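> call design_seq(struct)
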């Protein structure tokens, strides 16, 4: 079942204008409905599928100010386009102060109306996406905290209880009807289901999966999270998949492992509502994988070997996951989200100077988009994308955490240092969008502590998610600028 279409609510007391607006939008393929009183507006605006309100500010009954104040409190993501006569400038200004995002003057021009409504729909969709993501991040934060706090006495009962909690947590976080935690048997080189939700069989009765086979086996052998849009058409899996195996074709799978130890896999299938899993679901699943990996490592001798090898424990990863989730939940505006996330990273690295760079399509260079300087130490505004350790991270997608970066032959002093040019420890993490590296996070801590592969993956995953949403907002703002320019050219200047 596909997600319901976002609708436009048209509110105008004059039948001629009401019907004209509905007709213009319907011809443009925009789903809409109409009302003629303020009370009817508030009744219909409570429907979550209504994303845009085209509001005549001279509507009979409730004043536009009352309507806008109520909507601002109950549906802050709802976009309102105020419609007025040319002489209603004072009312328009008041409507804009009360939260209207745009205005149109009567008589309306069909093309201008459709353009404004489509921009408002785009704005609503982005804001609604942020709202849903914040709610899901709260769920992840709660799950991460609960799973990280679980004690383990080494018994099978403790493992079974933990596994069940994980499977249920995955289902809640990503909205999947079927989920599972699969644990790796080193001797048999197989994955066995430890716990599952939504399955017809008990976990013990489910068939094991060999390493390198099926989605779970491939994800664990590659050490990569997999997002499968259609398993029945994916050449990697279709020979091993029957049509009866999944209710929907989309899967999200995240391996649980360190560079030296394979532990298991988190799987989510059959997303509720039938819509495919996306990058958000995969990122949330990777956040949830942190405390699960931590728990499983505690049960193996490999955890002690990792500690003796100098790799930090995953306790820091859990703290970082919680800090980044809390930052994303706490803030609303994209710039504030990015700032909070970078500050969480800076604090985790002992007050390091941190900066985020993205590829500028015009110059082809890395452009500094945001930074959190420490003690006045700032990063470079522009960087080459193909030189130094930074260029290697951008080209290869593998992070660098070097206490002495100058010892690496790829080190370039004019690239891999901060603005003052002094050589100091360097952390450089790739940022990905739709499977492509689009930028890097750079940090210059006073001392480079040992960082696990999971910590580096956490930095990449969480900040990539933040960047993806910031870019969505940037695209939306560009669209709004285009709308303003089109309106100026059409002879409808902004209110001054």
């Amino acid at each position: 079942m596909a997600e319901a279409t976002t609708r436009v609510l048209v509110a105008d007391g004059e039948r001629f204008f009401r019907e004209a607006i509905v007709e213009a939008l319907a011809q443009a393929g925009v789903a809409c409905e109409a009302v003629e009183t303020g009370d009817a507006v508030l009744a219909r605006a409570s429907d979550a599928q209504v994303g845009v309100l085209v509001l005549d500010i001279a509507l009979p009954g409730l004043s536009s100010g009352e309507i806008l104040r109520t909507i601002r409190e109950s549906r802050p993501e709802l976009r309102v386009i105020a419609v007025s006569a040319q002489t209603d400038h004072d009312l328009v200004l008041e409507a804009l102060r009360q939260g209207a995002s745009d205005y149109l003057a009567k008589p309306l021009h069909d093309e201008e109306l459709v353009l404004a409504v489509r921009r408002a729909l785009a704005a609503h969709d982005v804001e609604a996406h942020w709202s849903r993501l914040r709610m899901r991040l709260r769920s992840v934060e709660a799950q991460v905290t609960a799973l990280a706090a679980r004690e383990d006495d080494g018994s099978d009962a403790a493992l079974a209880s933990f596994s069940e909690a994980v499977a249920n947590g995955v289902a809640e976080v990503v909205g999947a009807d079927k989920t599972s935690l699969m644990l790796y048997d080193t001797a048999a080189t197989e994955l066995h289901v430890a716990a599952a939700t939504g399955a017809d069989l008990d976990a013990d009765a489910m068939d094991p999966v060999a390493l390198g086979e099926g989605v779970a086996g491939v994800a664990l052998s590659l050490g990569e999270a997999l997002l499968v849009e259609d398993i029945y058409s994916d050449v990697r899996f279709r020979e091993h998949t029957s049509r009866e195996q999944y209710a929907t074709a989309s899967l999200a799978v995240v391996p649980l492992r360190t560079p030296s130890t394979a532990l298991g896999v988190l799987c989510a299938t059959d997303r509720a509502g039938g819509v495919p899993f996306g990058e958000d679901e995969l990122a949330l699943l990777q956040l949830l994988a942190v405390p699960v990996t931590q728990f499983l490592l505690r049960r193996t001798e490999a955890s002690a070997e990792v500690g003796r090898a100098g790799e930090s424990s995953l306790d820091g990863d859990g703290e970082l996951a919680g800090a980044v989730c809390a930052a994303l939940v706490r803030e609303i505006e994209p710039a504030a989200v990015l700032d909070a996330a970078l500050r969480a990273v800076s604090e985790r690295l002992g007050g390091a100077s941190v900066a985020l760079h993205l590829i500028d399509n015009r110059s082809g260079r890395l452009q500094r988009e945001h930074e959190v300087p420490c003690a006045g130490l700032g990063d470079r505004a522009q960087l080459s994308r193909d030189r130094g350790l930074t260029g290697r991270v951008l080209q290869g997608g593998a992070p660098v955490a070097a206490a002495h970066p100058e010892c690496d032959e790829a080190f370039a002093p004019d690239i891999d240092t901060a603005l003052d040019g002094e050589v100091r420890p360097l952390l450089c993490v790739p940022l990905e969008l739709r499977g492509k590296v689009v930028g890097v996070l750079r940090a210059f801590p006073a001392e480079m502590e040992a960082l696990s592969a999971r910590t580096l993956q956490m930095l990449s995953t969480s900040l990539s998610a933040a960047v993806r949403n910031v870019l969505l907002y940037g695209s939306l703002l560009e669209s709004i600028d285009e709308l303003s320019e089109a309106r100026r050219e059409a002879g409808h200047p902004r209110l001054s």
